[in-house]
């Protein structure tokens, strides 16, 4: 059967993921190989001190991404998309979307990027004896209560971005367990009942007419699946052309962490992955429960409900991209313009020639706050020692280190205090597109082998398509077994081991990075 036949007969699977800077669609064939894609670029806005995307941004971006997918399919295969075997929605995790009884947004979407819930996160962490990060939905909700925000009394339900889009398309308020675990702590396949009771008992919470358990979405693991299907209204919303038919089965919506684990075959205990794009985060699937809790480490779950130690950093490639674009601009001014791919290739690979400790140059890539290293407010900065050579190789190596420094700080706690030692770590996302550069630096930083697969650039939309396929095909198999058999059998990958000089260089770099944090903090507060 040809790819055209597969698409025409509705046997392909579709994954759509709302990333921080791009919404991506990935269409895969029966062999789970990507055959077509679509995308839409967007940016969050800082409005009244809050990072947000508007409802119009969300819907228009969804429609434009799907239209781009339709065009790609038409150009490649000469056919129209009408249905799929299954599909699923993913999005950046956490944040806060609050709705009234008429399903109207009560206030602009507060994204994961906001660092405005410190008081609530600290109180809930103490109450639960469990780390509640600032970006989690429950921290946003409780901070709104502490702030006395008037919208709280009108809340009928809250959701994540993936859950909201899933609701628009299917009419179901539900989440995959991985995404749900970034709203409220989970245990035994659902929200932690003891913690729900503790939250419910708070005097400030009792003042409202809603119950926390009632306003949260339902929870489903990937193995449990979903009964949701694309509605007539959802089909028209996604595809205003009218070609798409209702009735497509959906899997539970997931967060980008869950799709990253699926896309890197890192859902089995003892495996891990690092996703690196606008933000950077590591996910290590735990083999045993953690003994302590730390503000730098979240405990979330795989799409099948296994506990995961997550180190989530708000900043990664954003500042790097600005510097690359500046050198592209210089090349144009010099009359020798280079394209984007060449610029990244040259600058990143040359960074390998820099000193392992970056020659005394230190970069803070903090466009927004970075809670993992204690920065409430973000302003990009760099400094160097007076005797630094300040070569381009040293400078760009420092920028690449800066993109991973907070991640290393969090994982150092996990590895040293909890004795966690993953059997494998797989990298994916934009940072790894230039072969062998960020991969080697990450291996040196974590002192662990790091692999990158041939699908590293496909990202979460492909991971979501895999989860959609699992939702249809599962026959009593675990997600880990199904992925290994169906998606990753014979998958090409490259593995790099840590270099002793690089690991020693990282230690010196982190000494300099830590020494300058007080200055970075003061600069961010100006």
UniProtKB/TrEMBL annotation:
Annotated protein name in UniProt: Sugar (Pentulose or hexulose) kinase
Family under the similarity heading: Belongs to the FGGY kinase family.
Taxonomic path: Bacteria, Bacillati, Bacillota, Clostridia, Eubacteriales
SUPFAM superfamilies per the UniProt record, alphabetical: Actin-like ATPase domain
Superkingdom, natural source: Bacteria
Stored InterPro entries: ATPase_NBD, FGGY_C, FGGY_Carb_Kinase, FGGY_N
GO BP field: carbohydrate metabolic process
Organism: Ruminococcus albus
Span of domain Carbohydrate kinase FGGY C-terminal: 273-470
Domain called Carbohydrate kinase FGGY N-terminal: residue spans: 13-197
Keywords assigned: Kinase, Transferase
Any one GO molecular function term: kinase activity
């Amino acid at each position: 059967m040809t790819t055209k036949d597969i698409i025409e007969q509705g046997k392909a699977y579709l994954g759509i993921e709302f990333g921080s800077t791009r919404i991506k669609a990935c269409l895969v064939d029966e062999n789970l190989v990507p055959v077509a894609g679509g995308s839409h670029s967007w940016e969050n806005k800082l409005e009244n001190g809050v990072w947000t995307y508007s409802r119009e941004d969300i819907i228009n971006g969804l429609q434009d991404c799907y239209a781009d997918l339709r065009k790609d399919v038409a150009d490649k295969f000469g056919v129209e998309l009408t249905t799929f075997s299954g599909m699923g929605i993913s999005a950046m995790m956490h944040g806060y979307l609050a709705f009234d009884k008429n399903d109207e947004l009560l206030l602009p979407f507060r994204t994961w990027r906001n660092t405005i819930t410190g008081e609530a996160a600290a109180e809930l962490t103490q109450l639960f004896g469990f780390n509640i990060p600032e970006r989690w939905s429950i921290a946003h909700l409780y901070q709104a209560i502490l702030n006395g925000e008037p919208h709280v009394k009108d809340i009928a339900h809250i959701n994540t971005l993936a859950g909201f889009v899933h609701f628009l398309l299917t009419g179901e308020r539900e989440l995959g367990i991985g995404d749900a675990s970034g709203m409220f702590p989970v245990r035994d396949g659902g929200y932690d009942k003891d913690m729900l009771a503790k939250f419910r008992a708070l005097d400030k919470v009792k003042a409202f007419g809603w119950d926390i358990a009632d306003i949260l979405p339902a929870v489903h693991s990937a193995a449990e699946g979903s009964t949701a299907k694309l509605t007539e209204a959802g089909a028209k919303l996604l595809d205003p052309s009218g070609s798409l038919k209702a009735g497509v089965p959906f899997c539970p919506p997931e967060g980008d962490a869950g799709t990253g684990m699926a896309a890197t075959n890192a859902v089995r205990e003892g495996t891990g992955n690092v996703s690196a794009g606008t933000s950077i985060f590591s996910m290590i699937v735990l083999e045993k429960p953690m003994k302590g809790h730390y503000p730098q480490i979240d405990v979330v779950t795989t799409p099948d409900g296994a506990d995961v130690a997550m180190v989530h950093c708000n900043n990664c490639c954003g500042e790097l991209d600005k510097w690359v674009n500046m050198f592209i601009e210089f090349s144009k001014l010099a009359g020798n313009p280079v394209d984007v791919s060449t610029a990244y290739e040259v600058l990143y690979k040359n960074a390998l020639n820099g000193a392992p400790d970056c020659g005394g140059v230190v970069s803070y890539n903090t466009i927004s706050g970075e809670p993992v290293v204690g920065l409430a407010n973000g302003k990009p900065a760099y400094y160097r020692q007076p005797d630094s050579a300040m070569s381009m190789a040293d400078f760009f190596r420092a920028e690449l280190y800066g993109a991973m420094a907070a991640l290393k700080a969090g994982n150092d706690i996990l590895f040293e205090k909890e004795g966690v030692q993953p059997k494998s770590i797989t990298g994916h996302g934009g940072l790894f597109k230039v072969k062998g550069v960020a991969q080697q630096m990450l291996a040196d930083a974590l002192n662990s082998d790091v692999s990158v697969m041939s699908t590293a650039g496909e990202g979460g939309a492909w991971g979501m398509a895999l989860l959609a396929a699992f939702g249809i095909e599962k026959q009593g198999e675990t997600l880990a077994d199904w992925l290994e058999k169906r998606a990753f059998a014979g998958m090409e990958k490259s593995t790099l081991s840590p270099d002793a000089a690089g690991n020693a260089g990282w230690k010196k770099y982190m000494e300099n990075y830590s020494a300058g944090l007080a200055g970075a903090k003061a600069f961010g507060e100006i």
